Amino acid sequence: MSIEAEVFEQAKKRARRKGFLLALLLVFLVLITIIILNSFLEFERKGPHIATIKIDGPIFDDTNFNRLIYELGFNPNVKALIVHINSPGGSVVGAESIFVALSELSREKPSVSVLGETATSGGYLIAAATDKIISRSNTLTGSIGVLLQYPNLSKLLKNIGIDVNTIRSSDLKASINLFEKPTAKAIEKHQQVIDETFLWFKGIVAEKRKLSDINLEEVSKGGVFTGRKAKKLGLVDLIGGEREAIKYLEEKVDTKGLPLVDWTSSTASSSLLDLIFKQGDISSLGKNFLSNSGFRLYSILF
Question: Which residues are catalytic?
Answer without folding.
Answer: 121, 173
